[in-house]
Design brief:
disordered N terminus; DNA-binding; 4 helices; eight-stranded antiparallel sheet; single chain; about 15% helix
Length: about 220
DNA sequence: AGGATGATTCTCT
DNA sequence: GAGAATCATCCTT
């Protein structure tokens, strides 16, 4: 346990930014499009433990993906359910792109597009374990406890400064990218997705059990 | 042109 | 556990 400036007690949550064995955030290989061009639930599981990197104003922010949700195939809960529209068009494009949308008028959420072109499927990135650029994340998130910096799809986007401007970005590019190397993931838990009205029974939410950074403890 | 609707978060009880 | 905030998008007149 450590003490924050405000005196709250909280768990020590972050891996050392330069721990041995962690890849270089700038130069390490990124996941190729072929990784994403597979069954969406498989991609959702295998994104856990990968490092998502955000280049923001010359600074590198990063976090380990600890929670995801699969959307598709044949999924009434998916934005793609009623076909392609202007908002969800990126979902129907090539895999390995970022699909960013606005919900409730104020919250951005990000997805990794999966499956072959023409198929509208994606993986919602729901939570990250902050790894680098924590000062910027704290700034972007308004000084909440570190455990809450990226513990939800909109929180993660706010922490990383991801908005509609990043919609369609190539995840093998330089603005937002995901590394190929994976930190050890002991177990993966599967359960119902959060906040949806349709197809609530499908166990398409995946997370690393025990992580203090998932959206629900 | 207008109304309904969220893959959420925060604050309060 | 409930309610509000807040608006781009989508679907119906």
């Amino acid at each position: 346990m450590t003490r924050t400036q405000e005196g709250r007690s909280e768990e020590r949550v972050c891996r050392p930014a330069h721990a041995p064995g962690l890849p270089s955030l700038r130069t390490a290989a990124r996941l190729p499009a072929a990784f994403y061009e597979r069954e969406t639930t498989t991609v959702a599981r295998e994104l856990l433990g990968r490092i998502l990197v955000r280049r923001l104003e010359g600074e590198l922010l990063a976090g380990v993906i600890v929670e995801t949700e699969a959307y598709g195939p044949d999924d009434p809960a998916s934005h793609a359910w009623r076909g392609e529209t202007r908002r969800n068009a990126v979902m129907f494009g090539p895999p390995g792109r970022l699909y960013v949308y606005l919900t409730y008028g104020m919250h951005w959420c990000m997805n990794a597009v999966t499956g072959p072109p023409g198929i509208g499927e994606a993986v919602l990135i729901r939570a990250l374990e902050p790894l680098a650029g924590l000062e910027a994340m704290r700034r972007n998130r308004g000084g909440v406890p570190d455990r809450l910096l990226c513990s939800g799809p909109a929180r993660a986007c706010q922490a990383l400064g991801i908005t509609g401007a990043e919609n369609g970005a190539d995840l093998a590019g330089d603005a937002v990218y995901i590394l190929e190397e994976r930190v050890p993931v002991e177990r993966v838990a599967a359960g119902p997705r959060i906040g949806i009205r349709h197809a609530v029974e499908r166990p398409w939410r995946f997370h690393i059990p025990g992580s203090p950074h998932v959206s629900r403890r």
